[in-house]
């Protein structure tokens, strides 16, 4: 019973923030015909206003983000073409990352290096784990399986760390950059500012939700090894 209770609690911690983020985004995604432009147009305006004319705004199917390698802001089609509080806030958030890159904001660079490292260890680790499992099965030696478990734990911890260290970067993009831009530029009516604040908070906590999901995934893999 304790094992089941711990699993249920862990699943709640892992999926709860993700569901909350999605709920906040959907709640404030209602179409607003009174807004003068779409999320994509707003991002383009902010980039040009801050001298980032060479940074494109693209439509993506991989989730809203700023790509520091290609120097591009990428928005989902719904937000790129939408006129809503969510579209405006998320566009400003991603432009906030572009401003971090322009300003050589060191935490952003550190985080993307760690994410790149995590992606590399994922690929290498998958090969190592399958190799050790095969060797362990062929040699009937538990040592190879233990090395495999150690590799899984290391890969999982690197991935969790990569998501967690993004938190201060996300908060900087939301509250030190995007929120002042929206507020001081009076891009939204005063009555919409609380909703924009909620969306920016959800955008900042996206990586917390992702890191908790990685913890659950690590727990699941270790349970399979057990």
From TrEMBL:
Protein name per the record: Zinc metallopeptidase
Record organism: Hoeflea poritis
Record Pfam families: Zn_peptidase_2
Regions that span the bilayer: 145-166, 202-222
Keywords: Membrane, Transmembrane, Transmembrane helix
């Amino acid at each position: 019973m304790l094992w089941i209770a711990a699993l249920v609690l862990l699943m709640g911690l892992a999926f709860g923030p993700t569901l909350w983020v999605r709920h906040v985004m959907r709640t404030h995604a209602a179409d607003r015909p009174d807004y003068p432009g779409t999320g994509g147009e707003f991002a383009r305006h902010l980039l040009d206003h801050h001298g980032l004319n060479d940074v494109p705004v693209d439509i993506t199917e991989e989730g809203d983000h700023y790509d520091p390698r290609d120097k591009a802001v990428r928005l989902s089609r719904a937000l790129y073409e939408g006129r809503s509080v969510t579209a405006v806030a998320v566009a400003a958030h991603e432009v906030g990352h572009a401003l971090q890159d322009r300003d050589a904001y060191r935490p952003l660079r550190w985080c993307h290096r760690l994410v790149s490292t995590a992606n590399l260890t994922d690929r290498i680790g998958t090969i190592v784990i399958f190799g050790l499992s095969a060797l362990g099965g062929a040699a009937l030696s538990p040592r190879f399986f233990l090395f495999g478990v150690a590799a899984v734990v290391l890969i999982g911890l690197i991935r969790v760390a990569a998501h967690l260290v993004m938190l201060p970067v996300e908060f900087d993009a939301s509250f030190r950059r995007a929120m002042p831009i929206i507020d001081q530029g009076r891009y939204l009516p005063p009555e919409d500012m609380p909703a924009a604040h909620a969306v920016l908070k959800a955008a900042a906590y996206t990586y917390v939700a992702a890191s908790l999901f990685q913890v659950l995934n690590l727990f699941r893999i270790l349970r399979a090894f057990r």
